[in-house]
Amino acid sequence: MTFLQHYEQRCGERGERPLAWMQEIADATGMTPEAVYQWGKGFRIPNASAQRIIAELLGQDIDTLFPTSKTLQQ
Q1: Mean pLDDT, the chain, as a whole number?
Q2: Domains of the chain
């Protein structure tokens, strides 16, 4: 499951921002909830350090959470 899919799943049927989850990711990465929102909507990609932290938190590998165009073509 990609990070975008995790975000969408947490938004639920009403499409509301998952504020507690966003804050948890923001606190762990040292970023703002707004940055997490932008990652979750696909507007931006977190830096390598943040990707490692998020992968640990979600128990998934980085390539699955943040696929690049190269990995999508495989």
Answers
A1: 90
A2: 3-73 (1.10.260.40)
CA torsion 38→36→15→66, rounded to 10°?
Answer: 80
For 43, which DSSP code?
Answer: S
The model's pTM is 0.85
The enclosing H or E element of 56 equals helix 48-58
| CB-based contacts of 40, cutoff 8 Å, min separation 6 | 3, 4, 6, 7, 8, 22
What pLDDT is stored for residue 41 in this prediction?
A: 92
Alpha-carbon distance of 68 to 28, in angstroms, equals 23
Amino acid 15: pLDDT = 78
Q: Determine which helix (DSSP H) or strand (DSSP E) holds 39, and give its type and residue range.
A: helix 33-40
Six-digit token string for 68 = 């690049």
